Amino acid sequence: MTTSAATGSDSPDSTKAQIGVTGLAVMGSNIARNFARNGYTVALHNRSIAKTDALLSEHGSDGSFIRTETMEEFVAALERPRRVLIMVKAGDPTDAVIEELAGLMEEGDIIIDGGNSLYTDTIRRESAMSARGLNFVGAGISGGEEGALNGPSIMPGGPKESYESLGPLLEQISAHVDGEPCCTHIGPDGSGHFVKMVHNGIEYADMQLIGEAYDLMRKALDMPVADIADVFREWNSGDLDSYLVEITAEVLSQVDAETGKPLVDVITDAAGQKGTGRWTVKSALDLGIPTTGIAEAVFARALSSATDQRKQAQELESGTLSAAPADAKTFVDDINKALYASKVVAYAQGFDQIAAGSAEYGWDVTPGDLATIWRGGCIIRAKFLNRIRDAYAENPELPSLLLAPYFRSAVEDAVDSWRRVVATATTMGIPVPAFASSLSYYDALRSERLPAALTQGLRDFFGAHTYQRIDKPGTFHTLWSGDRTEVTA
Ligand SMILES: NC(=O)C1=CN([C@@H]2O[C@H](COP(=O)(O)OP(=O)(O)OC[C@H]3O[C@@H](n4cnc5c(N)ncnc54)[C@H](OP(=O)(O)O)[C@@H]3O)[C@@H](O)[C@H]2O)C=CC1
Ligand SMILES: O=C(CO)[C@H](O)[C@H](O)COP(=O)(O)O
């Protein structure tokens, strides 16, 4: 019997792989290389053999790989309990691969779905696999190509016992911040994919806010793209320090080789989406959580893609527009603060949705853990996640991130700038759906009274839907079509 250096466990057969990866496109191939670079023997499988061979010919020297062609060979190449990471297209392809694997695996083996699967699919799959004696782990993985290779953020759900065997491997290949892995057990069944879904929703909001900040500098201040790139570069050394702000400077600095124009000016302005943002909003609607920043970001992508409609609408009158702000430097500072405050709102809403999802499904997700594992590896990694982590460490029952002392004071400090940015954008005819809705959310949240009282009155008028009063308990109805006296409902 030999001992595997990578797992530290007794390995009955040193010729077997400790982990297998099936699906060797961008994410799977890089994660497989990451495992190999960390000392694991990795069994490789892909539906079409070309990807397996490309990986081996280009990166075979990264470590120890076992090449397999069929699923039977792949499963046979793994030490027990077998651990297989599926990195294929979400949806039907994932179901097909799970089914094929499940027919070959044995009790106690672990199937990990690392794709962007819908959490309700994960709940269904976990239950089906568990009935067949297999462990199923739905793991959200973020970081794109570079993260997959050098250390992603990993959000594994599923049975706690599976994490005992799997956790050390996943933690080892994940990103590390201050010595801590960006990977932890999230909770049962669909929790890992739910959390990854909301992570992606926040990613959408973050990118939309960055886009609006860029658009304001462009349209309100007429700044050249290269100067805007410099502004983002500078912001990345302050409170907004984050991967997305960093790469915004990179993308804006890119010059198109063919035309000599900024690349951003030759890219069609119709944003794509694969589904995770939309799922986040659908889930927010079902849970009754106002995730408005993410919703605006999803709708902004949809509107951007309505190219024919947009073309025809260009003739619509703008009305009288105001002039550009007199002091460009002050306005850029205002945008910085508006971006920060709106970003806090997006995270606050995302964490509210995770708390609601966790309560609905009984997952017991720890918000501070998410802030910890999102600090590195993932697309939304940002310096201020340290502050979110501190906020939940100080008060695990935080009613809203906006009420954590640090964020409260940062947002209160930003609010005048935020209002100036939204007001200026509106009077100049520049769309800022995410900035504006985040500010409205903030104002609504802090309002003592909302017009919902009128909504209740109207509902009672047309449909006898009843209402509660502020001054006494009970449920009431006004006899609107009678003598308009109030009765107890
Ligand atoms: N790209 C990214 O930045 C990120 C992606 N993800 C998720 O990770 C997963 C993998 O993503 P990515 O690497 O981009 O690859 P893709 O989502 O483009 O999927 C391509 C892979 O899926 C395989 N595949 C497709 N259909 C089937 C099928 N019916 N049966 C078996 N295999 C099939 C392909 O095999 P073949 O080569 O034979 O066609 C290929 O290996 C996805 O779920 C994605 O949402 C998560 C985080 C980031
Ligand atoms: O999961 C990811 C990062 O965390 C992917 O990059 C995600 O698929 C991007 O989503 P979309 O294509 O909808 O913008």
UniProtKB/TrEMBL annotation:
Any matching Pfam family: 6PGD
Pathway(s) served: Carbohydrate degradation; pentose phosphate pathway; D-ribulose 5-phosphate from D-glucose 6-phosphate (oxidative stage): step 3/3
Residues binding NADP(+), per UniProt: 23-28, 46-48, 88-90, 116
Alphabetical GO biological process terms: D-gluconate metabolic process; pentose-phosphate shunt
Membrane-spanning intervals of the chain: none
Catalytic activity from the UniProt record: 6-phospho-D-gluconate + NADP(+) = D-ribulose 5-phosphate + CO2 + NADPH
Family matches, as InterPro entries: 6-PGluconate_DH-like_C_sf (IPR008927), 6PGD_dom2 (IPR013328), 6PGDH_C (IPR006114), 6PGDH_Gnd/GntZ (IPR006113), 6PGDH_NADP-bd (IPR006115), 6PGdom_BS (IPR006184), NAD(P)-bd_dom_sf (IPR036291), Pgluconate_DH (IPR006183)
Entry keyword annotation includes NADP: yes
Active-site residues (renumbered): 196 (proton acceptor), 203 (proton donor)
Highest taxon of source: Bacteria
GO molecular function: NADP binding; phosphogluconate dehydrogenase (decarboxylating) activity
Subunit-level organization: Homodimer.
Family (UniProt): Belongs to the 6-phosphogluconate dehydrogenase family.
Name of this chain's protein: 6-phosphogluconate dehydrogenase, decarboxylating
Gene: gndA
